[in-house]
Amino acid sequence: KTEATVCTHEEAASLHWRRWIGAARLSVGGSELDGPFLVQVCPFRLFLVDITPVYKEDEELKTDSDDLVEVCGEDVPPPEEDEFETLERVMEVRIGRKGATGAVTTVYAVEADGDPNANFDPSRQPGEVQYLMKWKNWSHIHNTWETEETLKQQNVKGMKKLDNFKKKDQEKKKWLKAASPEDVEYFNCQQELMDDLHSQYQLVERIIGKRMLPPIVFKSAAGYPDYLCKWQGLSYSECSWEDGALIARKFQKCIDEYMSRNQCKTIPSRECKVTALNAGHLSKQMKPRSLYNQLNV
């Protein structure tokens, strides 16, 4: 005997996801159920998840694209790689010159070609609200200033993060109006410290790996390899592969230090025969677990 239960998306999230199959219409216990459904077959129980589109009017119940979970069966091909970028975090907000947005506002573009927002006076020139964006799977060195309109034109994902930032910014302005001068001064000091910390995120602390991509996917200029960079103020989990030409132009000293460490005869590396022979004799507690030891340098 099999008991059937029809549950919602939220209720299904608490179940152990095993194998799901699709069904447009089901007959359970003599009753006809209109789908579409996702069906999970478990011992003595049949879970049916109604995946009929549900339209929610409440603003608080809106689901961001990042919160969606895609379930693919064995016969369903995996989804293609995302064509659009995803917002990870909104860093700052400003009133900037119209059009001073996009790739020309990255740190390296500003250093090479100048700041498109330089000498802008919002009291004399027409401006627009711009947000400094941290992009998912991109390091802080690639942060760009964007407007809400440019984000919509690019069909970026994660726009809910921008809405949340705007709400918090309004609450902050409301609090500043009612706060005491001492509280405002303390807040400004904390803001300056955070700005200094964020600026460190764009500085390479050290290089811990390199790779030379095949000619088919090789994109770096002048034959530079990609470098795995550890950023100041961030953990090793935030390391990212960066274009060799860009790193050589801005952080050549870090490349030189990396090459010096690899060529040093007194510092062991993965290529050292002694390290390879003795690694198996270390206990699990003594074995290093850093990201550096997992790289082919």
Automatic annotation (TrEMBL):
Domain Chromo: from-to ranges: 85-177, 202-270
GO cellular component: chromatin; nucleus
Keyword Zinc-finger applies: no
Swiss-Prot/TrEMBL keywords: ATP-binding, Nucleotide-binding, Nucleus, Transcription, Transcription regulation
SUPFAM superfamilies: Chromo domain-like
Nucleotide-binding in keyword set: yes
UniProt-recorded name of the protein: Chromo domain-containing protein
InterPro entries to which the protein is assigned, alphabetical: Chromo-like_dom_sf (IPR016197), Chromo/chromo_shadow_dom (IPR000953), Chromo_domain (IPR023780), Chromodomain_CS (IPR023779)
Pfam families, per the entry: Chromo (PF00385)
